[in-house]
User: Fold this.
Amino acid sequence: MQKNTWPQGSVIRPPRHDEAEQVTALICACDIADTGEPDWTVDETRADWARLGFDLARDARVVVARDGRLIAYAEAFVRPNAVEIAANSCIHPDFRPLGLDEALIELAESLAAQHAPLPVRWVIDAERGRSLAARGYKPVRWLWRMRGEFDGSPKAAEWPEGFSVRNMEPEDERTTHALIDAAFARPDRSPVSFEEWRRFMIERDDFDRSLAFLAVRGDEIVGAAMCLMYEGVDEGWVRQLAVDERFRHLGLGSALLLHAFGEFYRRGAKRSGLGVDANNPSATKLYLGVGMRSLGEYVQYQRAAVPGG
Assistant:
């Protein structure tokens, strides 16, 4: 298989920190081509690049055309049990007719190979996943991107007796992190340290503490919804939703969601969005039950560890 498939004269190099807007524009152009609308912001690009353990010079590449346009972007992030290729690794729509999918996969895999031997994971739409399947990747998880439209004021949250909601304060952060990490635990997921979670969730330009909601029973934190508003997109996004296992099936998850939706609507949002593991029937039932729908399915493919990449 030929590896020099990029257009003649193009350059592959690490992105610079001052190119966050250009990389974001590339990702958004791919989003628009794939789904009809952008699904990424420059704040998210900068937050990705600021994650603990991520080295921009080592873990990301841009492919730059002779005329200076960005052709493609690839990013890998090493976790304790796998290397994750960013779902935003993509080729600009203007260059897709050149048939560069294999070149992008090889570029992304070269980044992952720096962390060998570890399994490699890649979340991608099913159509593009065929190229990964041919290279030994197998589908292991299915994920939905979900949306709820606001035709009017969302239904008011109904809190079980003895429970209420408030915003997360700085002194709540460690407890909130522990609750979320426990709720997200599964066999193939490595725990996320408090420092890593805080860097990615809180130490970012678009973090708004007034959109971090806690379900409480007295002084005890029993649930959390970490949300943000996308500027200029008219959408509120639920980044993380979790309920303490001891207090599930009481309606706290739906109450947190509806409370967040009400705040999104009050601030001018026309819709809400989130991502969910489609293999989690309790979660999908919850989101469908509050009026959300799936916009599309994505697949997490995984390739077994290969010594030396």
